[in-house]
Amino acid sequence: LEAVQWDNTRVIAMETEGANCLKEARNAGKIVSLPGITSVATSLGALSVSQEFFNRVQKQPDKLISHVVPDTAALESILKFADHMRVLVEPACGSALSAVYNNIIGQYHLPQGDIVVIVCGGNIVNLDLIQQWRQQLAV
User: Is the full-model pTM beyond 0.85?
Assistant: First the structure.
């Protein structure tokens, strides 16, 4: 953000319960390691955040909001995105999409302006998984 002079931009870091190492580290005030990833969002999961990233967040804590959603919110968002955009993404991305689909962004009273959602990750998803998640959620 600094490189493109978006210094006033705030970031909402979305994680799923069971893959929320950033939120846990921020709550503890230090890097912590999760005992394992228990979320459906395993593909991009990490047991802990890097020291460099954690230090950066600690220096400017108001720049980054940490928000955690349940797996169901991530999965529901994946299904909505597939229906709306005809693109398959995996649960880690579903957590980011849930910020918009579930109006989590609105909870933080951010200034008016454009919203950017980084949509990534589709390597592990296929139509069979999408159908399985639909049935699991009874959507």
Answer: yes
